[in-house]
Amino acid sequence: MKSFKKLDTAEQRRVSKFLREVGALEDPRLRGKALTANKSGLWRWRVGDYRIIADIVDARVVVVVVDVGHRSKIYD
C-alpha cells in the first residue's frame, strides 16, 4: 500500500504491531470507531498521530486496511 510505504520505518513498525494486535481480537470493533458520511461502513483506529482506516469482513473477522495516514490528511 502506497500510504503505508510513505511512513517512516518506526511508524510502519507501530502500525504493523497494532494491526497484529487488532487482528488477534475476536471483535476488532472494540478498539475502533465507526466512520460516518462518505466513509460510512469503514472503521478507524488511532496509532499516535496516524489513523488506520479499514473495512471489517464479518464472515471471517478479516480487517482489510483501506488507508493509513497522518490524522491531518487521512480524511480528505
Automatic annotation (TrEMBL):
Keyword Cell membrane in record: no
UniProt key word Nucleotide-binding: no
Q: Pfam families from the xrefs? A: ParE_toxin (PF05016)
Q: Known InterPro entries for this protein? A: RelE/ParE_toxin, RelE/ParE_toxin_dom_sf
Domain of life here?
Bacteria
Q: Which UniProt keywords apply?
A: Plasmid, Toxin-antitoxin system
Q: Which family does it belong to?
A: Belongs to the RelE toxin family.
What is the protein named? YtpG
Organism encoding this protein = Corynebacterium striatum
